[in-house]
Specification:
By secondary structure, the chain is α+β, with helices and mostly antiparallel strands. 42% of the residues lie in helices and 23% in strands. A 5-stranded antiparallel β-sheet has the order 1-2-9-4-7. A 4-stranded antiparallel β-sheet has the order 3-8-5-6. A 3-stranded antiparallel β-sheet has the order 10-12-11. The longest helix has 27 residues. 31% of the residues are buried.
Length: 235
């Protein structure tokens, strides 16, 4: 993990999609002076489940997985994050340890706003507080839906849903080419709630049906409409 010259909040395009869009110019300058910013490579841990929440994490760029470890020691991916997303706010709000870990899926740049600045905004910035409440509500709703889908949907439908989630999260705006992403079979299985072996077998079936192609860890989606039909079969 290498320290480098961080982007300035007031000029950062990623802030337009996160809580910082509710901050005025003076607040952004103050935040930019006290925050820390780090670069991570694939597999590096940004924060760990069970560690103390030290601040609010703002993803400047890159792909991140948020994971929990089950009683059997297996990893479950509960959320995906990209540039403009915020992480770690739950532990700050509840003054508890992090309930999950954040791990880089590729090269990432992540800024950390100290908890004192976070609570200053929460106390004095009404739009910031309101947007945080909306964010917490949306994350709770998404978690409830994923829990139901993992419990009741067959593996085939869960794979289609996971591929669509990856495409919705990481597809570049206005990109008309077939969506392609490199992801390990372990990570895809953790996102689906199944084993690496089952994930590999189901990918081979989807490939045989012409819905995607694979090359190493890269997956290219060729038939997103067909994936939607499969993913929503039991909705």
């Amino acid at each position: 993990m290498n320290r480098f010259s961080p982007p300035q909040c007031q000029y950062c395009p990623s802030r337009n999609g996160c809580l910082l869009r509710c901050c005025n110019e003076a607040d952004l300058e103050a935040i930019s002076l006290v925050k820390t910013c780090h670069q991570y490579t694939s597999g590096q841990v940004i924060f760990s489940e069970g560690s103390r929440a030290l601040g609010l994490y703002c993803v400047h760029e890159g792909k991140i997985k948020v994971t929990k470890t089950g009683g059997d020691g297996k990893e479950q991916i509960i959320r995906l994050a990209k540039g403009g997303d915020m992480l770690g706010y739950r532990g700050l709000v509840t003054d508890t340890l992090h309930s999950a870990s954040a791990v880089a899926l590729d090269d990432c740049t992540v800024c950390m706003i100290p908890k004192q600045q976070f609570f200053h905004q929460l106390k004095n910035n009404g739009p910031f507080a309101n947007l945080l409440i909306q964010l917490l509500a949306n994350v709770l709703q998404e978690a409830e839906e994923r829990m139901l889908h993992l419990a009741y949907k067959p593996v085939r439908e869960r794979l289609a849903e996971a591929l669509l989630l990856l495409m919705r999260t990481y597809r570049t705006e206005n990109d008309l080419q077939p969506f392609s992403l490199s992801i390990s079979r372990d990570d895809l299985g953790a996102l689906m709630g199944t084993t690496k072996e089952t994930t590999t077998r189901m990918l081979s079936e989807f490939k045989g049906e012409g819905m995607l192609t694979t090359r190493g860890s890269a997956i290219t989606i060729l038939a997103p409409v067909r994936l939607v039909e499969i993913a929503t079969r039991y909705d």
